[in-house]
Amino acid sequence: MSIFINPLFILFISIFNFQIATIDARPNMLNNIIHVSSSPAPVPSMADSGIQAGSSNHKTHSNKKLVIAVIAASSLGVILLPLMCLLICRREKLFRSRANRLDQLRGLPLSSFITRTNSAFKQNSQKQLVSVMDYSLLKAATNNFHESEILGSGGFGCVYKGRLDDNLFVAVKKLDNESRDALKEFQTEVDILSKVQHPNIITLLGYCVDDETKILVYELMQNGSLDTQLHGPSCGSNLTWHCRMKIALDTARGLEYLHEHCKPPVIHRDLKSSNILLDSRYNAKLADFGLAVMDGANKNVKLSGTLGYVAPEYLLDGKLTDKSDVYAFGVVLLELLLKRRPVEKQKQTPPERQSLVTWAMPQLTDRSKLPSIIDPVIRDTMDPKHLYQVAAVAVLCLQPEPSYRPLITDVLHSLVPLVPVELGGTLRVAENRVAAAFEP
Ligand SMILES: Nc1ncnc2c1ncn2[C@@H]1O[C@H](COP(=O)(O)OP(=O)(O)O)[C@@H](O)[C@H]1O
Ligand SMILES: [Mg+2]
């Protein structure tokens, strides 16, 4: 766009200058007409008179020139103005068609991202540009997408560990699935992540579109997902009570940013432990924005999400609001407290599926039962008052009626006092206990 501002700006400045010249010239012309035809000149001193007589003649002469110049300039302006406008329009058209051709060469309508980028998240103008990366570079960085580099997998392919030239480690998500849904999720993720910037939201470094292959490149999160930490080989043993509270607080901060600070607001729509990633210091970041929707946009989107995390009103009526994310956050809180999966297979025959929410709700409000269902790794390691408080927050988030659920901002404020100052909260605890927050 800046390309077109320059000639327009110059044109505007020229017209503006021309107008000033015309206005400046008018009083002089008027004075001279009066001076020449009617009133006699005041009697000047000899010296003054010579100078004045000469100057008056000169003025009359030069004013005539000025009038001719003004007439000539205005007629020139009348001819040049439409001509320049025509030229600018043609240049703009040419530029647009060239940009479209570039997009087509890359195989993806990049302009659609750009158009949407301009319409939203105006407060994030300082966000660094997401790079378009070369397929061969990513192939080399991931050892030709080798199995040994796989960090995790999801609905649309695998995520590989990659090493870029400059010793920068990254996570590379390769979408193998060519369905329309996969392409739409890819576009949504690029669209949203290229606009948002927050310490608790994963950073998208770049993307690549190479024929049918679509790739997303993120900052690497060394401690993987919360799901792997809780339900993987370490069985939650790396996560102390304080560390879990920090993860809950970070997650709430990421959601608060999406719900309250993005314009238009964003609903994540797929909040779950496998989409909460942990860096080397267990800072939690929200990831996987493929299903996210901008509030205010068409909410009649296809029913999506993950069983066990989906709010009842969304599942039954397709009603989607920020409170759907609050419900999913409640389920994540239960996972952190109880280290149980949201839907568990019962060991009986035939095996039945048990909903964590249905099973846990009555016990969360019973202070005598609550400690017995807590993950044994953290049981009795926290102040019981804090445990009751977190359980109460979870119960509120999991209310079947969305309007009874708190806003994520309220959840965030209730968690801040439970997290040590050193981990981003306001709780003051003995130094040795904070150090222990990271030690299993
Ligand atoms: N930036 C990352 N750093 C480390 N591991 C990651 C990263 N991104 C994804 N993963 C791993 O890959 C898994 C799937 O990634 P995700 O973005 O959720 O893809 P999907 O859309 O297929 O679910 C995650 O649960 C996590 O284990
Ligand atoms: Mg995922």
Automatic annotation (TrEMBL):
Domain Protein kinase: residue ranges: 145-416
Secretion signal, residue range per the UniProt entry: 1-25
Keywords: ATP-binding, Kinase, Lectin, Membrane, Nucleotide-binding, Serine/threonine-protein kinase, Signal, Transferase, Transmembrane, Transmembrane helix
Family of the protein in this entry: Belongs to the protein kinase superfamily.
InterPro entries referenced in this protein's UniProt entry, alphabetically: Kinase-like_dom_sf (IPR011009), Prot_kinase_dom (IPR000719), Protein_kinase_ATP_BS (IPR017441), Ser/Thr_kinase_AS (IPR008271)
Name of a matching Pfam family: Pkinase
GO biological process: signal transduction
Annotated residues for binding of ATP: K174
TM spans (from-to): 66-89
Keyword Cell inner membrane: no
GO CC terms of this entry: plasma membrane
GO MF annotations, alphabetized: ATP binding; carbohydrate binding; protein kinase activity; protein serine/threonine kinase activity
Organism listed in the record: Helianthus annuus
Protein name: Putative concanavalin A-like lectin/glucanase domain-containing protein
